[in-house]
Design goal:
The protein has about 170 residues and is mainly α. Helices cover about 75% and strands about 0% of the residues. Helix 1 crosses helix 2, helix 1 runs parallel beside helix 3 and helix 3 packs antiparallel against helix 4.
C-alpha cells in the first residue's frame, strides 16, 4: 500500500501540468487550486480504477500525453470564446448569421477532434487497463468533470456540501 501511495504522489507531481488554467471571463484559475484539483484527481482515479503499481506507472504518463495532445484544441476553443466575447462587448459590432455559422463550425471541429482523441485514448489504454477499468475510467472522467464544474462555479472558500445544497 505504501508503494502505491508513494508512486501515486510521484505521478501527481509529474502530471501537475495536466489541468490548464481555465480562461473564462473571470480570469485564470488560482494555480494552487489547480494543482490541488489535479492531485485529488490522480489520487481519486488511482483508487476508483483500483490501479496496481505497474498499471499506474504505465497509465499516468500516457494520460499526461493524452492531456497534452488535446490541450492545443482546448486552447483554441478558449481563444475563440474570448474572441466572441470581445465582439459582443463591442457596441459597434452587429452579429450576423455568417458569424454564428463561422464560429459554430470552428468550435464544433475542435470538439470533434477532442472527441476523436478521447475515443482513441480510451481504446488504446486497453493494453494497460482491463475492460472494467476502461469502463470505470469513462465513468470517472465524466463524474470528475461534472464535480469540477460545480466546484469552479462556487466562490473560493465556499464549503457547502452536496447535502446542504440539495436541501430546499
Amino acid at each position: 500500500m505504501k508503494k502505491v501511495l508513494r508512486l501515486t504522489l510521484i505521478i501527481v507531481f509529474l502530471c501537475m501540468g495536466f489541468i490548464h488554467a481555465q480562461e473564462d471571463f473571470m480570469g485564470p484559475m488560482n494555480p494552487d487550486r489547480r494543482e490541488r484539483m489535479e492531485a485529488l484527481r490522480i489520487w481519486k482515479m488511482t483508487e476508483f480504477l483500483d490501479l496496481t503499481t505497474e498499471q499506474a506507472a504505465q497509465f499516468f504518463p500516457r494520460l499526461k500525453e493524452f492531456g497534452e495532445s488535446i490541450s492545443d484544441d482546448q486552447d483554441r476553443q478558449r481563444k475563440i470564446m474570448i474572441e466572441i466575447h470581445k465582439l459582443l462587448k463591442d457596441k459597434n459590432y452587429k452579429s450576423s448569421r455568417s458569424d454564428v455559422k463561422k464560429y459554430a463550425k470552428q468550435l464544433s471541429e475542435l470538439e470533434k477532434n477532442i472527441i476523436t482523441k478521447k475515443e482513441a485514448f480510451i481504446l488504446d489504454i486497453g493494453d494497460v487497463l482491463t475492460a472494467d477499468q476502461q469502463m470505470k475510467y469513462i465513468i470517472f472522467e465524466n463524474r470528475f468533470r461534472n464535480r469540477l464544474i460545480r466546484t469552479l462555479c462556487q466562490p473560493e472558500g465556499h464549503k457547502s456540501s452536496m447535502k446542504e445544497r440539495r436541501k430546499p
